[in-house]
Amino acid sequence: MTIQTINTTPYDDQKPGTSGLRKRVKVYSQENYVENYLQAIFDSLEDFQGKTLVIGGDGRFYNDVAIQTAIRMAAANGFGKVIVGQEGLLSTPAASHLIRHYKAFGGLVLSASHNPGGPDGDFGIKYNIGNGGPAPEKITDAVFARSKVIESYKIANDRDVELGRLGIQNSGGMIVEVIDPVADYAALMETLFDFPAIRALFAGGFTMTFDAMHAITGPYAHAILEGKLGAPVGTVVNGKPLPDFGGGHPDPNLVYCKDMFDLLMTPEGPDFGAASDGDGDRNLIIGKNRFVTPSDSLALLAANAHLAPGYKGGIAGIARSMPTSAAADRVAEKLGIEMHETPTGWKFFGNLLDAGRVTICGEESAGTGSNHVREKDGLWAVLLWLNIIASRKQSVDQIVREHWATYGRNYYTRHDYEEVDAGIANKLVDDLRAKLPGLVGQNFGDDLQVAYADDFTYHDPIDGSTSAKQGIRIGFTDGSRIVLRLSGTGTVGATLRLYLENYEAADGRHDLETQSALASLIDLADQLSGLKQRTGRQEPSVIT
Length: 544
Ligand code: VG1
Ligand code: CO
Fold this sequence. Notes:
By secondary structure, this protein is α/β, with parallel strands linked by helices. It contains 18 helices and 27 strands. The strands form 6 sheets. Strands 2-6-5-3-4-9-8 form a 7-stranded mixed sheet, sandwiched between helices. The chain has a 7-stranded antiparallel sheet with strand order 20-21-24-25-26-19-27. Helix 2 packs across helix 5, helix 7 packs across helix 13 and helix 10 runs parallel beside helix 11. The longest helix has 18 residues. It is globular and about 75 Å long. The mean pLDDT is 96. The structure holds alpha-D-glucose-1-phosphate-6-vanadate (VG1) and cobalt (II) ion. Cobalt (II) ion binds next to loops.
């Protein structure tokens, strides 16, 4: 066994996005592409000699190749130990937990999350720091800078680690421990939630379907829902992780989970439906006859978290990404706790969580989580919902309606325009940004007056860092909002995300159809941005 230093030439496109570096498998399989990026990460870190690195992924196509490379390179770069999930599998929240639990230096998550997989799909690599959370911009910026000048990488010349075999092995002089990917995570969940109460709920005939979308959550959901909580076998569907996700798109929204939605809207359907994404950090929640928007789910979970043992002392504060609806703000106000608005992406929650300023965080993109890890956590959200249902002994629909009757309802939708020409998308955003100063105070229609219009800049209250150009927000005096930003996770062209929100007071109308409730804002957004005309699209690619 020898440590080799191999010469390489840089790629110019290894800029991490909202959550890691995501590219087509075809891009990742270019010569030294993975090696360059991993070396750029290692070169941007300090003082990890002899320390532990956690590695795992969502099982998508190319994981098996990249993971062996990552282990050999960790050995060559001086890590003392790698902890890896059996078969290379780890969900993003489980990886985050393992980093914290075993006090590792950091971790690598091999996933492109909700992006499609397979040989023609996407692959991704994300680096997480010692608190278990995604690397902050300070590190991702350094990685990108390094990737542009990299000249060589280090790799151990050793045989493949047997990822199927639990226990200790050796690679390039470094210890490799292959562990059960589920056990530690499941034990953590058991400390947070009232498992006996949820078990009693299932024993009493409560029915549920959980769609793991042939992605990473299958093994976790089988073990926890059907194993520990006694839900009948068959509760978890599509539970086997497959390299191409069975040909599906592992994004748990109403487009890719339409069948489940339809089932939940029938009398024969189960009481509760849920799903998670490629790497297990997102959640979709549907009750019988009631879809819960992720923004509402965040507010509801925050308002009811004290019903779960892990949060019985109450929560310190809530943080949400800027495009997420303000439903959670109303809960924070009532509870008299801190509320923070951050840019899109979980990396911005890390400091607030570490400082104990917030307990629960969420994003409109089906991400919710808490201080138990430093990532969003799909199954955690599902278990908290089950705990709340078991405790309140009410249906999802009743719980949601009571919430609106107390706090009012934030109607909310997101329109995605995918694979738009990048030049057109960038110009559209630039032109709208230029218009913003002139919009303040203007009236549109009968009741819309612009209260503020800006491109969101975040000032991190903990480390003082600033992140500018995080998305255009146009806010109105009645609480309505239009938000527009470019996606940082897509791999083809540009994806424009348009977010729309308005507010109905507690005694207002809570039964409108969402798209019609927001129709005038949707029209106004189009009028201000020229979206349809400039993109040539009459309809969004996806409405959530
Ligand atoms: C999207 C979501 C964002 C989320 C990110 C990663 O980013 O909008 O809220 O944090 O995906 O989620 P963007 O830049 O495409 O809007 V995951 O589950 O794909 O890691
Ligand atoms: Co994800």
